[in-house]
Amino acid sequence: MTRIAIVGVAGRMGRTLVNAIELEAEATLAGGVVAQGSSLAGADVGELAGVGKRGVVAVDSLESIVDDFDVLIDFTTPQVTLANLAFCAEHGKRIVIGTTGMSDDQLATLDSYRDRVPMVFAPNMSVGVNLTLKLLETAARALGDEGYDIEVIESHHRHKVDAPSGTAIKMGEVIAASLGRSLKEHGVFERVGQCGPRTDKEIGFATVRAGDIVGEHTVMFATEGERIEITHKASSRMTFAKGAVRAARWVADKESGHYDMQDVLGLA
Ligand code: NAD
């Protein structure tokens, strides 16, 4: 049984993580941390997440539950996550990090803990997306230099502020790496006006922003006579939460190291 504590338990992902732990027989909710001074400290974590009273009270300091958990799951902000990583190093805990938006310096600091903490860090915890990356690697290797044009099409809700999505870029990077290409050189992020015909090696990106789409990615490998499309569609945050809980169970018996979801899924 893996005892899991969640930092940022009152957040969108925090609440979803409580629901995901409920579905997992081999994991138990051992603690929930809210921001210091939050009025939600003292509330029942199960009630916060809408699953009913669970007898686990939200606290605003990790210190106060240090003996209660084995693995921390952290979906907060870069600064908070790095402070929690230091806490885990000091107290012999394991951590699963879903927080995004880290600067290069913050990523280097995170990585500097690889010898002191067993950690899983992935900006996309969806099992499906991580499997899709692996499928793309295989498809790109088989088709990319054989006359198949590669295009990445992604769709997200109307509120998303960046484009293309981080996941789409990651897909492009994986494809480029499999083919010995560089996304900087071969990525085409805009086509407008008299842009001329497509070149053989380019990897094209197209973006859709509409309504409440949670996140959809399709990679097309197209040639004369046939077209292969590999598609991933996320319809709820539960996919990220389930991936994080799976990662927490996986890292529970691992040595110190900086792992990602490819390691968790046995795809590395
Ligand atoms: P959110 O704002 O809803 O939740 C973050 C929570 O952290 C808030 O409740 C906030 O009060 C809390 N918090 C802030 N400081 C804290 C502290 N010191 N101690 C405890 N709690 C603290 O955001 P969200 O949508 O849940 O996303 C959180 C992060 O997870 C973002 O970086 C987001 O991009 C990332 N994310 C990653 C994945 C993935 O698959 N890796 C998926 C979804 C979101």
UniProtKB/TrEMBL annotation:
This is 4-hydroxy-tetrahydrodipicolinate reductase. Residues 128-265 form the Dihydrodipicolinate reductase C-terminal domain. NCBIfam families: dapB. NAD(+) binds at residues 8-13, 98-100, 122-125. PANTHER family: 4-HYDROXY-TETRAHYDRODIPICOLINATE REDUCTASE 1, CHLOROPLASTIC-RELATED, DIHYDRODIPICOLINATE REDUCTASE. Residues 3-125 form the Dihydrodipicolinate reductase N-terminal domain. Keywords: Amino-acid biosynthesis, Cytoplasm, Diaminopimelate biosynthesis, Lysine biosynthesis, NAD, NADP, Oxidoreductase. It comes from the Bacteria. GO terms for molecular function: 4-hydroxy-tetrahydrodipicolinate reductase. Pathway: Amino-acid biosynthesis; L-lysine biosynthesis via DAP pathway; (S)-tetrahydrodipicolinate from L-aspartate: step 4/4.
